[in-house]
Structures are given as structure tokens and as C-alpha cells.
Amino acid sequence: MASVTVSHVNKSFGEFRALDDVSIEFADGGFYALLGPSGSGKTTLLRQIAGFSFPDSGEILIGGEAVESLPVEKRNIGMMFQNYALFPNMSVFDNVAFGLMVRSTPRHEIKARVGEALELVRLSGYDERKPHQLSGGQRQRVALARAIVFRPRVLLLDEPLSALDKALRLGMQVELKRIQREVGITTIFVTHDQEEALTLSDKVGVLKDGKLLQEGPPRELYERPATAFAATFLGDANLFEGHVEEGELALSDGTRLRATAPLAGVGKATCAVRPEKMAIAEKGEPLRADHNHLEAELQEIIFAGNSLSYLLRRGDIHLRVFAQNRATAELQPGQRVRLTWRVADTIPVEA
Amino acid sequence: MAVSDTERSPTRRRQPSNAKSIVGLTGPAYLWLIVTILLPLAAMLYFSFLSDVPLPGRDWQVTLSNYAAFFQEDFYRTLMLRSLRLGFEVALWCFLIGFPCAYVLAKTIKGRWREALFLMVIIPFWSNALIRVFSWTMVLRGNGMLERLLDWLIPGFGSLNLMFTYEAVVIGLVHSYLPYMILTCYISLSTIDDDLIDAARSMGAGRLTVLRRIILPLSMPGIVAGAVLIFVPVIGSFMEPRILGGREGTFLGTVIEDQFTSVFNWPLGAALSFILLACVLIIFAIFQPILRRAS
Amino acid sequence: MKARPTNMLARIYLGLVLAFLYLPILVMAAMSFNSSQFYMLPIDWTFDWYVKLAHNTRLLESTRNSILVAMVTTVIASVLGTAASIAFFRYEFRFKKVLQAALFPPIAIPWLITGTAMLLFFFWSGIGRGLHAMILGHVALALPYVIIVVSARIKGFDPDLEAAARSLGASPWQVIRHVTLPYLAPGFIAGALFAFAVSFDQFVISYFLSVPGVSTLPVEIYTAIKKGFTPEINAISTLVIAFSITLLVIVSRFYRFGGDR
Asked: Which domains does chain A have, with CATH numbers?
């Protein structure tokens, strides 16, 4: 196992800057998610680390060894592809054995290790099947077994779950996490699904336009997004735009909101509030000093079984509030309500 | 194929074009086509403007007389019209017989049977054309299979000797090219969503209306492609008219063949070939947009 | 499934079309076993014509020529066609569209025109006629088919398969040997069989490029037909068509004709 270091990597395709001075440290044994919309450079970054293409400038180290000029087959990495890329002409066994075969591993050892790998992904007994005889989830597992059987230093996953339907995806997330923990391999995982990134990884990097915007543990990233983009891309967020007045955020209609810490500087500022942190105050509920308050008009209530979404409007600001389905008060669209949330949940972000 | 630098997003790129490998890989094949198709056609064009074969010891000069012959003598014009009529009739019959057949295959028959039957229809097309034409001689000749069959069905039917008639040539050619029409129509028809037909019927359209307003227009690329791909080789056919048409089987194709194999007037043959080629090119040019859609 | 009357009608129609396509061939095959020269019925079964065939040196000779020409054509057309297909798949270049369009003429121009043009050019340029000239011509006709069939197979190739093999540590040569070639094999085999069928059944081009004494089986059969039908020709024709159809059934295992799915 090994750590991976990417430092000051640049990559352009013609005019297009796919990676713009990206530096990230992937800790040994960690599960790291690269999150971003399509075109953000996350796949390009993964392919630089894998060695399918080479950076224009910058360094990539795997286990402390500079690899940026090594081709992929010399880097000893395991990779899982979006569409699995299982060899259609080979059985499950031969697919998994491939990495060992090209390394000239003795036959009996191949047999033992493929057996172990298939057991790990719970596919023992499927050795002789061909890929087209497997379900999507099973193919997934074969691809994973194939990527880790030769004990690579790093496991790279390129949107590995995007081809599965939702139910299967949730099951595979748990499996992937279990296997990663059992093997203890440094794992870098590319996804555009924020929920997947938050569930699986112990560190997330958010990319946009070829730049690394922010990185950190999922919880920290979610609770303290640094930019409006991170706030809205990772989960839902209500954004308030205004300008700084005495360390508070003044909205265009004059309402003042307090943030986690007094706002520094002058001029324009933006704050984000997660919809689930907001609540609709009960009638007669006293105003609390450590809360922000805002009047708004309730426009719509969306019922989703165990939870509710309230869509509200204040002037030209549209707001969203999530609540558990245990509200006692009977609310009607059109009603004016008072929103309340903790000052500590009002996060200043870069626009 | 070693892996090239494939980037999935935002632009999928292949390795910057590598002139040396491209020439190395495609060069031999295209050099071959130049020597066997392009140069011969060029040589033929050249010959068509000569008075005799340009060989040492022969007296030849550049002339337009070969083309003039075609436009001045009624014989060639009649021949051309006969060939065009033959092509048109064969394509029409292929459509009339083949389209319903393609429809049945694409829309009525399902599953394994469809694949097997489709294959059965298509495979004769790729087998030996000469022999398939030859096999008709045994069916069409006087006292042949067809006559006996009809005689058995309708006692006292009398005699029917189709051999060495225009009709025999049409039958043989339809037999040869029918699978082509079925193939192209089948491909077009199988891309028509069954829901479209159901939708039209739910709106009250009768079967005929559905056929006329939905199915035929949508399968038009396949029909036209089939018709063109039949018409073109038929106007250039010579072996089928020779075997099945006998004296009745004189068409542009057979006259061209004569110039090369028995009359040895190569320049005239070349000129006639080029006039035929011009017809072919004009047809392709006219139908090119539809053909492109069909492929 | 219940059979509606229209359904029944459809099946009968399809049956009639198939009868139209196959009956003449079956009649010919049956007659090749009939001892009567004049195709008298009922059939008096015999193998005589096949035995006679075995002693007909001209037909045997031309059969050997046909096989030889078809085999050489197959090798050349497969190699050249596969190389070109790979180039079309891997590279984007300026004249690609033109080159692909250039495959059309050998298929689309009537063989009469290509055949006479080859005759004229080969004779005039000193290449001459004979088996080598036939091979030149047959390869030109087979090439487009090989390229179309092989390209159809390559098109479905997922470049990620090669990427995956490399990520598993395979060298470029190992990638080609274990991943690329096995994937291409069915397309390559189908293309080769196609080339063989095109050459073996080719009559028009061979006809114009043959010289007396050196011809292929279809040319020999044509000559015999023009001289007058003999049951011997039925016998050899039956064998040829049986061989062609078998070959094509095998091809269909590797390549789907047209848009069947």
C-alpha cells in the first residue's frame, strides 16, 4: 500500500485547461473521493494518476516514488472502470487472473489468489461464467476482484457505481466500503454523486473547472462549505446574498442575519444555510437570541412520506426547508410563517 | 491497438493523427484499389475516345465517333431504353414481392424464427448467382417443371415455354435480386417503433391508412435503397439475359460484352460502358440523399 | 399464441417467397440425381453424373483454380482490409470520409463495367490475363466487404478494455495478444469467409480475365451452359451451391447480415 501525492499538476487539451495547478495528498489506506460535475477534471486527474495520460507539468508520487513518466502498466495500480471493461471473451476466473497472469505468477498461486479474491467479493463458484451471463452487480464485483487481486499499491475507481440502479448501488456502496477496509488499500474514487462521495469516503475533494476547490472529511465539507458552489453541489443549500454591515449580513430588504463568526471586510457577501437546519417556528414560540429569524410566505408543501419539503419565498429569495414528518401544526400554502435557525448554521461562503 | 490517450470528458480525443501509421495501414488497400479500379476505369475512358486499340502496329487516332454512334444510331438508343425498362421492371417486381415479405419478417414473426427465416431469405443472395440463374432453365423450359406443375393443377393447360423470353429474364433477375430488397426494407421496417402503428390505430386509422401514411413513408429510405441497388446491376447485366433470354436477351450489357469478347471493338465497348456508368452515376447522384439516410 | 387469420396468411406468403427462392435450386439438385438426360419424371435416381464429374479433368482443373484464387484472395483481402479498418477506428484524419466513400465503387458499379475495364487495362498495361489477374480483381471486390465486416466488429470495441488490461499490468504486446486480437477474431474470420465466398462465386470478373485453358469453375460452368445443358453441370452446380450456402451459414455465425437483432 502506498500514499499518493499530486503536486502542481497541469494538463491542457488544446485551449482547454483540464487541470489547473492541482495538488492533493492521498493518505495511505485512505478512501478518497474526487467529486465534481462533468468537465470538472476529476476523470482527467484520475487518468493522470493511473498513467493513461501524462501531465504537462507537475509531479505525481506513488509511495514516494515519482511516477509521472511511467506508463500505466508499470505503475502497479488497480483500476475499476465505469462500464467495468470486463474482457468479454474470458471467463470470470480468467478476467480476475489476468493481472496475475501478465505478472507471470505461478499457476497454483493464481488459482489460490483468484479464489480468495472471488470469495472476498462473494462470487465464489462463478469462476466459469462469462461476463454476459452476470448481472450488473455481479460484473461490478468481478471488476473489483480483478482490480485488487494482484495487490496493487492504489485502487482507482472511475464512477464505478453509476451504471447500477439505485437499490443495487446502495448495496454495493456498503460492500465496497467493507472490502476497502478489509484490504486496507489506498482508494481514489471519482464520482459526480455527492451522496455517494459523502457515504463512502473519509476524505472528499471537490473539483470545478480543473481546480481543486476544497477538500476535507465529508462531515466538515458538508457543514462548512467554503464556496457557494460546494454548498449547492454537496447537498442542498439556501443562499443569502447581501452586503456586510457591522459584521452581519444585510439583505436587500434590510433584514440582518448573523453568521458563525462576525463577517470580516466590507461589500458583498454570501451565506449558506442547509434546508434541514431551518425550522418553521410554532405560533407563540419565543425568539431565541442565538437564532436568526426570517419571515417568509409558504408556497408549497411537498410530501415525501417520512419527510416534508416546504418551498417558501421572501421577496425574490426562494427558500427550501426540510422537516421530519412529525410537524403538528397544520400549515397551508399562502400562509406567512417565521423561519428560525441557529446562528452557528449560517455559513459565510465565497460566491 | 495500444491504448491511446482517451479522455472521456470534456472532449473525447484520439491520439493526434499519426500520418505514418495511417499511410502504412490504409496504403496497401487503397493502392490495390487504384490499380484495379481507378486506373482501369481511366484507361477505359481513354480508350473510348480512340478509333482502335492503341497497340504498336495499329492505326489509331482520337475520335468522338464511338459516342457519336450511340447518339446517332437508333439501335443503341432502343437498347438503352430496353435495359432501363428491364431495370425498372425488375426493381418494381422486387418491391411488390419483397416489401410484404420484409414486413412479415419485421413485424409479424417474432423471436428465433425471425432470425432463422431472415437468414434463409438473405443467404441465396450471397451464393453463386450464375448457378441460380442456370437453375431456372430447368423450371422454365418447354416441358419443364413450371409447365408440368401448371398442367397438373389445371388439366389441359397446354404448353408454356417461357425459356428464351423477356419474361424469363425478368423472372431470373427478380430471383437474383429479391433478397436485396427484402434486406433493405427489413432494416428500415425494423427501425419503425411498433408504438407508432398502435398510436395511429388508436386515433382511428385503418390498416390501409396506417400503411399509406406511416409505414410506407418511414420505410421509404429502405425501399429506395433497395430499388437503386437492384436497378444498377440489372441495367449492366449480361449473363442472365444470355442464359435465360437467348435471342430475346439483347440488352446494353450483352452488346458491351460482345464488343469485348467476340466483336473485339474495344473502343466502342469502352464508350458504351462509360455511357452505362454515366447512367449509374446519375442514378446514385439523384438518390444520394435517401441512400445516405438508409445507411 | 393464437394464430390470427392475417398471421396465417403472412406465413403462407413468406412460405411462397421462400419457395420462389429455393425451388429452382432444389429442382436442379434433384435433376442432378436423375439418370435421364432429358429430365424425365419420375426421377430415376443415380449417382452417375457425380461419378462422371470425378473424371472431367476440365472441371476439376477449374475447381482447383477457383479454390486457389479464392484462398489467395482471402489472405490478401483480409490482411489489407483489417489493416485499413484498424486505421479507420484508431485515427481521425482529413481524408477518412473520402477513403471510406472510395470503398463504394467496387460494390456499386456493375461488374460488367469493372470487369471490362480490368480486361482492357490489364491487357494494355502488360499485366495480362489469367489467374494472377483474377486475383488482382477479386481482391478489389472483396476488400470493401472485409473492411465493412471488420469495421462493424471493431466499432463495438470498448477502448476501456485495453485501458483495463494495461492497468492490470499488461505490456502493449500482451494487450494486443490477450484482449484486442481475441475480440477482433470473429470479425476477422467473418471477413475472411466473406472474401472467400465473394471470390469463389465470382463469375463476371473471372469471365473477362480468363484465357482459354485457364479459367475458374463459374466460367467453366457458363461455357458449358452455353454449349447446352448437361446433367453433369447440374451435379457440379449442386455441389457449388451447397458449398456456398454452407460457407454463408458459417459466416452468419460470426456476422449478422443487416440489421437483425
From this structure: 4-226 (3.40.50.300), 236-349 (2.40.50.140)
Cell match 423561519: residue? A339
Interfacial C residues in 179-208 facing B (CB < 8 Å): 180, 197, 201, 203-204, 207-208
Inter-chain CB proximity C164 and A76 less than 8 Å: no
Q: Which of C:102-121 have CB within 8 Å of A?
A: none
Say if CB C175 and CB B2 are below 8 A apart.
yes
Chain A contact present for C64, CB below 8 A = no
Looking at the domain assignment, is residue C103 inside a domain?
A: yes
Q: Are A35 and A204 in contact (CB under 8 A)?
A: yes
Rounded Cα gap, residues C170 and A73, in angstroms: 6
Output the domain CATH number for residue C61: 1.10.3720.10
Question: How many whole angstroms separate alpha carbon A235 and alpha carbon C148?
Answer: 49
Say whether the ipTM exceeds 0.90: no
Q: Can you give the residue range of the structural domain that contains B100?
A: 73-294
pLDDT digits (tens, 9 = 90+) for B28-79: 999 999 999 999 999 999 999 988 877 777 777 888 888 888 888 888 888 8
Per-residue pLDDT, B51 = 83
pLDDT of residue A248: 86
C-beta atoms of C31 and B190 within 8 A? no
Which domain, by its residues, includes C61?
48-254
- Residue at C200 is within a domain: yes
CB pairs under 8 A between A and C: 67
A317-330 pLDDT per residue, tens: 889 999 888 766 67
Read off the C-alpha cell for C121.
487495362
**Contact across the interface for C169 and A88, Cβ inside 8 Å:** no
- Contact with chain A for residue B10, Cβ under 8 A: yes
Query: Terminus-to-terminus CA distance in chain B, angstroms?
Result: 27
* Residue B121: pLDDT over 80: yes
